[in-house]
Specification:
Blueprint (H helix, E strand, L loop, with lengths): L12 E5 L3 H12 L4 E5 L2 H7 L6 E6 L7 H11 L5 E5 L4 H9 L4 E4 L4 H28 L14 H13 L6 E4 L6 H10 L8 E5 L8 H6 E2 L11 E2 L1 H4 L4 E5 L6 H13 L1 E3 L6 E3 L3 E6 L11 H7 L2 E4 L10 H16 L8 H9 L5 H14 L5 H5 L15 H19 L4 H8 L3 H11 L4 H4 L10
Parallel strand pairs: 1-2, 1-3, 3-4, 4-5, 6-13, 6-14, 7-10, 10-13
Antiparallel strand pairs: 8-9, 11-12
Helix pairs in contact: 12-14, 16-17
């Protein structure tokens, strides 16, 4: 197996140990129907020799054996690697030993006689745990290598492992790439990886947030202009396309490109030439285009389909955080430790309750929101996600103060605005993206609920909402 690839359940091995030869044969034959690598041992000493640190598998052993008991085998296996799941099989009279074994780190124990399916379920759970443990260890090791892709796109989930593989497989192919992903998933990070792991890595990476560029300045920003081309053009200006020659241009929020500019961009991509506004001279350019969107562009009336098909030669899909729950606690731990190290402060870390809340939360803001939550937990010394997401100044006891449906909806809407402003520290553009609303609608609602967005930029989270 390639050392750069994350482990999957198919890579795992099962060790079965029992001094009863008939039972050993029957169990190993049954497990061989479900797993590719099953190793059967009558002698527990041989089984122990087979185990090593990082062993990708699960150990199943009888408790009562003549030379080495299952409890002793458990101790020796865990001394080699404390995270190897060990399942012990026990007769009814050995229950006290089984309880002791669980206290010493046994993953599970099964009372004889047992149904084969009961053992299979336990092994599969043990494998799931071992997959996660080993992949987290591999990721932490990779994080120490500053140039590894795992340091940019962290996660042990199968979807993140696939994303990393897909990036590396197309990074050196000189083709346009369209990245799909929700707000906060890290689309620019993926685009930067495509550039940094390509043959263009020594040239410019030029990111453009299409939603942040005023429509009247869009063409000038991309194509540049010559002196006197329009009112206010007092000097020549090199556009982003020319500036990125031999490098990469990244169109973030590509769906926001004005329609009148889309046809001109299509010509640039088709002919590899660019003309500055007010100039009659075409300049040859050599660029790679990467685009990202949170919307569906196919059959989108606001996006030219010929430009869409030009940009989506290859496509990448970034999974939202709620679809890769295996990564949530690992990412939270990483960003907590990073913030504490940078600021030389201490925090006890997430307790069991907070961990469960983090896993159950929907994460509309994805990784960007997780970073925000991790930072605020430390700053506010907080161990309850509900306290961060539901500030006191917008809470209301509806049982004590009954109100109409309209009031309930208004309070909920106001709380959504306040929460989003807090998460993004008053950055209106990020709030608009997260809540998927127009700026005019956003301003109307701020006026309706008397919320001052500027206060959140100053760190003052007290809302000016009046009722």
């Amino acid at each position: 197996m390639n050392n750069n690839e994350d482990l999957s359940a198919d890579d795992f091995e099962i060790i079965i140990v029992d001094d009863n030869k008939d039972l050993l044969t029957n169990v190993s034959d049954y497990l061989s129907l479900h797993f590719k690598k099953v190793h059967a041992f009558i002698n527990p000493e041989e089984a122990i020799q087979f185990v090593y640190e990082g062993f990708p598998g699960v150990v199943v052993s009888d408790i009562k054996m003549p030379k080495i008991s299952g409890v002793e085998l458990l101790s020796q296996v865990l001394s080699c690697d404390a995270n190897i799941p060990v399942i012990l099989m026990t007769a009814h009279g050995d229950i006290s030993q089984a309880v002791q074994a669980v206290q010493e780190g046994c993953y599970d124990f099964i009372e004889k006689p047992f149904e084969p399916e009961r053992l299979l379920v336990s092994i599969k759970r043990g494998i799931e745990k071992r997959v996660l443990t080993l992949n987290q260890a591999r990721l932490r090791e990779a994080l120490n290598k500053k140039d590894a892709i795992e340091t940019r796109l962290m996660g042990v989930s199968p979807k993140m492992a696939k994303l990393r593989r897909d990036i590396l497989s197309i990074a050196n192919l000189d083709i346009p790439v369209l990245i799909h992903g929700e707000t906060g998933t890290g689309k620019e990070v993926v685009a930067q990886c495509l550039h940094d792991f390509s043959n263009r890595k020594k040239e410019q990476f030029v990111p453009l947030n299409c939603a942040a560029i005023p429509k009247e300045l869009f063409e000038s920003e991309l194509f540049g202009h010559v002196k006197g081309a329009f009112s206010g053009a007092n000097t020549n200006r090199v556009g982003k396309f020319e500036f990125a020659d031999h490098g990469t241009v990244f169109f973030d929020e590509v769906e926001s490109i004005p329609l009148n500019a889309q046809v001109k961009i299509l010509r640039v991509l088709s002919e590899n030439i660019v003309e500055a506004i007010g100039s009659n001279t075409a300049i040859d350019i050599n660029i790679r285009v990467i685009a990202a969107t949170k919307e569906e562009l196919k059959n989108n009336p606001n996006f030219r389909q010929d430009l869409y098909f030009r940009m989506q030669v290859a496509e990448l899909y970034i999974p939202p955080l709620r679809e890769r729950k295996e990564d949530i606690l690992l990412l939270f731990e990483y960003y907590v430790n990073s913030f504490m190290t940078q600021n030389n402060i201490e925090w006890r870390g997430a307790n069991a309750r907070l961990q469960q809340q983090l896993l159950e939360y929907h994460w509309p803001g994805n990784v960007r929101e997780l970073i925000n939550i991790a930072t605020r937990c430390i700053i506010q010394n907080c161990y309850d996600l509900n306290e961060l997401l539901n500030p006191q100044h917008i809470e209301k006891n509806y049982e004590e103060s009954p109100c109409s449906l309209k009031d309930l909806v208004n309070d909920f809407e106001a709380s959504m605005l306040v929460n989003s402003l807090q998460r993004h520290q008053g950055c209106v553009q990020n709030v608009l993206e997260e809540l998927d609303i127009e700026r005019r609608t956003f301003n109307l609602k701020l006026n309706k609920y008397n919320i001052n967005s500027r206060l959140y930029k100053d760190g003052d989270i007290e809302s000016k909402k009046l009722r």
